[in-house]
Amino acid sequence: MSIFSIGAILVGLSALFGYINHRLLHLPHTIGLVMIALVASLSIIAIDLLDPTLGIGSKVTGMLRQIDFNATLMHGMLSFMLFAGALHADFSALKTKRLVIAVMAVVGTFLSTFTVAALMWMAAGWVGLDLPFIWALVFGALISPTDPVAVLGLFKTVKVPDTLQAKMAGESLFNDGVGVVVFTVVVAIAMSGVGDGGGADGAGGQVGAMGATEIAKLFFTEVAGGVALGFAAGYIGYRAMYGIDEPSLEVLITLALVMVTYALALALHMSGPIAMVVAGLFIGNRGVKYAMSEATRADVMTFWTLTDEILNSVLFLLIGLEVLVISENANLLGFALLAIPVTLLARALSVGVPIILLSRWQVFTKGAVPVLIWGGLRGGIAVALALSLPETEYKVTILTITYGVVLFSIIVQGLTVKPLVKRMVGRGIG
Known about the structure:
Elements lengths: L2 H23 L3 H22 L5 H10 L3 H19 L3 H6 L1 H30 L5 H11 L4 H7 L7 H35 L6 H5 L4 H31 L4 H21 L4 H19 L3 H28 L11 H26 L9 H7 L5 H8 L7 H30 L6
């Protein structure tokens, strides 16, 4: 099946399921897509169980396996969605909360990563699963960052105070980049250990034994390089638009900025997500204010809003359909359920500890802690990272528990965060 045919099916299903949700379910758009796609997937599994000769599941699964979820999201869709999210972010609000955002994005991500790893490693031993600590750490790294796509989508349906929204948006935009870097480093360490023992595909021979210096260098290159590249790209785009007033051309400049910058980040081994966030903040604030006329501003914002909505729809549809790919791992369901309270506990620590540390200098919105904990959604990025893992004996386990946490996060947390906000922050919040 051609790429165009697969794309046509996905966009068509997104439109169909979105229409069904709008007319019948009235759920938030992305959550409705996940739930309808999940029901469709489970229905296909049930039909196959009743009549295996039909082979519907194998046909749909075959199509899904043609989609490289990791490459599609991490090397394609994510660049557009992160730029669009940062483009609409209020930089002045983020700047006033920069200390909180930085501590939660960095310290919180590391704290959550190690907490999840320790608890899941102990839980694996308790249920009799073979999951070495380094691979539990891989799971902790990919599941700890909140998903900016899911969190920013939350603000379209849930109204929260501006100061709290700035913290949640800023944390999700930046801890995603930090989390991807941590994940990259931990997987490299895990595979270097495999290679030392004669691991599969010779990965260890390529990675080599990683010491503290190599780890620090890799982390610095990814993070600092991503920031520098994003700032440079944003400035170049800003200067290109500053001297002209041609809406269609300026939309094209922003599109080229995203694609070229992300491609460069991948080629230079810098953090593409961080580069996109920095470039998006630069264009969305300085560029919008000083380099665009009203007509251009309206066209640019409309273009990126629509792009974000369409890609979000396809992404959440894929999350619902991907259950077919991992349906044969039902024996890991219990372990996946254990991962849900573990990740919530780790999230509580990653939010609570920074807030306790900073409460002497910062004033926090009433109810900020429970809202930050419950509103820290996981989404497609975690699934994409799990799918990107090398083919080791631990990949299936990590992928299954990741998927379980993501589904719980999107459906249960996503549907209940609005009443939580009303109860904890104030009844006037709509």
